[in-house]
C-alpha cells in the first residue's frame, strides 16, 4: 500500500491550496481517509476525514468553514481544499488510510500513512 500526498507549497495569507492524496495497492472504496498536520514543535493534529460509502465528513474547529474534504473513488484520490489560509496553517500535511471517520473525529488505526506535503503560509 502506498499513499502519496501532493499539492503543498508556499502561499500568502488568505490564499488557497488543494492537497491530494492518491492510494495504490489498497481496496480503496471501503476505506476511510483522514488528514492530519504537524507543525514544528507541535503535536500532530487531526484536520479532517471522510468516510467511505455515505460520505460522512469531519472538520477540526481550527479549519471548519475554510476546508473541504472530498474523494474521487474512480481515481483512488482524496482532496483537501483549503481556503483563507492563515500562518497557523503552516505544517506538514499527511493523509492516513483505514481508520474510521465519523462526524466528531477520525479514529486512527495502524493503517497507512503518506509521506506528507509541506504547506507554508507566509507573506
Features:
123 residues; mainly beta; 7-stranded mixed beta sheet; 4-stranded antiparallel beta sheet; 13 strands; globular
- Rg over C-alpha atoms, rounded to the nearest angstrom: 13 Å
Low-confidence stretches: none
**Cα-to-Cα separation, first versus last residue:** 37 Å
| Helical content class | under 10%
How would you describe the shape? globular
Helix count equals 0
Q: What is the H-and-E element order?
A: EEEEEEEEEEEEE
Largest sheet: 7 strands, mixed
- The share of residues in extended strands comes to over 45%
E-strand count? 13
* Class from secondary-structure proportions: mainly beta
Please tell me the overall pLDDT.
Answer: 95
Give a structural overview.
The chain has 123 residues and is mainly beta. 0% of the residues lie in helices and 50% in strands. It contains no helices and 13 strands. The strands form 3 sheets. Strands 2, 4, 5, 6, 9, 12 and 13 form a 7-stranded mixed beta sheet that branches. Strand 4 (33-38) and strand 5 form a beta hairpin.
Short description:
By secondary structure, the chain is mostly beta strands. The mean pLDDT is 95. The strands form 3 sheets. Strands 2, 4, 5, 6, 9, 12 and 13 form a 7-stranded mixed beta sheet that branches. It has a 4-stranded antiparallel beta sheet with strand order 1-3-8-7, with no helix packed on it.
SSE inventory with pairings:
Layout: E1 2-6, E2 9-11, E3 17-24, E4 33-38, E5 45-50, E6 57-59, E7 67-72, E8 77-82, E9 91-97, E10 100-101, E11 106-107, E12 112-113, E13 117-121
